[in-house]
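Hi support team,

I submitted a single chain yesterday and got back a structure, but I'm not sure I'm reading the token output correctly. Could someone confirm the output below corresponds to the sequence I sent? I've pasted both exactly as they appear in my results page.

Thanks,
R.
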Amino acid sequence: MKILHGLISLAVMISLFLVISPSKGFACSCVPVGTVQEGLDDSSNVFSGKVIEKVDPNKNKKIQSSADLIEVKFEVNQSWKGSNQSELIVYTERDSASCGFEFSLNKEYVVYAKEVDGKLRVSICSRTAPVASEKEDLTELGQGEKPVKQLSSNTENVKESEKAAAQDSGNQVYIIFTALGIGLAVGMIVGFIMKGRKR
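Hi R., thanks for writing in. Yes, this is the structure output for that exact sequence:
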């Protein structure tokens, strides 16, 4: 009888623990990936490129979330939609539990990205995948545009400012030497006049 009461008590405790303990969050749920054309239509940027940098702003924080955004910089090979810059930055969640895509450094991908709040976002629910496994996509997408290395307006302004500053400094040096030359000439003339008077 005591054994029976003990087993019932144990079962009740386990049940309460399972009910009260926090349940795990739901894993990422995706609708089936559509066709290449649907992926193209549904994305704001589609390109292929190599991952050259990954930045995790919360890497050293004690509290991290699977939904933290990771910054991934690409060296773009070709573009089919959106920006045709030679480098692009996309963002994805830290973990696949939050639909994040796990990019590997120095690996090439075909990327389908959506613009959200001014940032290009990528998830495992898109057609994004390593280039090696995306032969169907590359065939259907055809030849993309080669990227154009564009200087930002800030960089151009800085270069123009530096050029103007260099010209100004060159002009100042010219003026200083001219003034010195004139002063020296005037001094010599005055010296000759003074010597002539003494004689």
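A quick pointer for reading it: The first strand starts at residue 45 and ends at 55. Let us know if anything else looks off.

Best,
Support desk
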